[in-house]
């Protein structure tokens, strides 16, 4: 069985593409207040406008800019993903450590 390490996977075109996309979303989320043309809860215009220069993705049913909502929503999504990943890391590491301490290593040696 051939298993690649994380550093080997990151050197492949798919790994580079995935890292680039992730970095793009992190930068967009981190700079959302600077990039967003309107505030998070601002009612910027009429409802259901088509995309134009003022609203690159149009507006929703209550007149909020969809581009602004997308930027701020990415912040929430990345925060939740980070917290969940950290929680899984802590739980998995604790479980593995406790299994090794009380049951013994799985290798049998």
Question: Which short descriptors sum up this protein?
Answer:
59% helix, elongated, mainly alpha, 109 residues
Brief summary of the model shown:
With 109 residues, the protein is mainly α. It contains four helices and no strands. It has helices at 6-10, 13-30, 32-35, 66-102.
Structure write-up:
The protein has helices at 6-10, 13-30, 32-35, 66-102. By secondary structure, it is an all-alpha fold.
Write the layout of secondary structure elements.
Blueprint: H1 6-10, H2 13-30, H3 32-35, H4 66-102
Give the mean pLDDT. Answer: 88
- General form: elongated
Provide the β-strand percentage band.
under 5%
Q: What percentage of residues falls in helices of 4 or more residues? A: 55-70%
Number of helical segments?
A: 4
User: Pairing-aware structural class of the strands and helices?
Assistant: mainly alpha
* Extended strand count: 0
């Amino acid at each position: 069985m051939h298993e690649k390490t994380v550093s080997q996977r990151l050197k492949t075109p798919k790994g580079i593409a995935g890292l680039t996309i992730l970095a793009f979303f992190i930068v967009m989320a981190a700079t959302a207040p600077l990039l967003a043309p309107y505030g998070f809860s601002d009612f910027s215009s009429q409802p259901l406008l088509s995309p134009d220069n003022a609203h690159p993705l149009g507006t929703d049913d209550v007149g909020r800019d969809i581009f602004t909502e997308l930027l701020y929503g990415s912040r929430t999504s990345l925060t939740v993903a980070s917290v969940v990943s950290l929680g899984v890391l802590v739980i998995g590491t604790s479980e593995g450590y406790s299994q090794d301490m009380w049951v013994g290593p799985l290798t049998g040696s």
